[in-house]
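User: My instructor asked us to take a sequence, write out its structure as tokens, and then describe one feature of it. I'm not sure where to start. Here is the sequence I was given:
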Amino acid sequence: MTGRLAHLFRHPIKAHGREELASVVLSAGAALPWDRHWAVAHAASKFDAGAPAWTPCPNFQRGARTPALMAITAVFDEGTGEMTLRHPDLAELRFHPETEGVRLIDWLAPISPDDRFAPVALVKAPGVAMTDSNYPTVSIKNLASNAALADHMGQPLSIHRWRGNLWVDGFAPWAEFGWIGRQLQVGETRLEVRERVGRCKATSANPETGVIDADTLRGLRDVVGEQDFGVFAVVLQGGRIQPGDRVEVI
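Assistant: Let's start with the prediction itself. The structure tokens for your sequence are:
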């Protein structure tokens, strides 16, 4: 089975902005560079800033609880360390995550809860990506699966609802679920598919507006029997990848 890499995305701050990339260099045993490098801890978070480590996603602000976050887009300049965030209801924010996290917290206030889940700090764990899995993964999504779900639901579905890293084209809908335990050759790299990605209510929000407008979870239960979309993979062999690269299931 062969297809192609159609899109490439990272999400520098977990749940707070997507960024499309022209290319990226993957490394064995690591997540996509700068993906989920930071996360936003809320007031009830158990993230330990004194001993930072991978922490489950309920400890961070996310779209499942705060759907407006889904409309954030991001641009991260690796050279200067400056992040630019945009949201349809907020002024553009330019800041340096390493030193100006408080500016992000202030910027988020109008679209965030004001209770125990209010955002309080921008955090990170050195060398660890805050992926939804407790090991470094790259998420892979299938354009045909998104199209099939949209057809079943009778409404268009933006691929940005799924916050994927690698979007592939040229495969049958839901073929990716059969890749568990198999390897993919993507450009110069090789990845091993490990497990399905369980989805949450964040996917019900329109990524252009941050407003809930689709029962994606019910749609997934109807079509595939579970609330799963996409798969997690680990990088076995690093290298550069870019849209247009051949994707082969081995």
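For the description part of your assignment, you could build on this observation: The chain is about 10% helix and 30% strand. Try explaining in your own words what that tells you about the chain.
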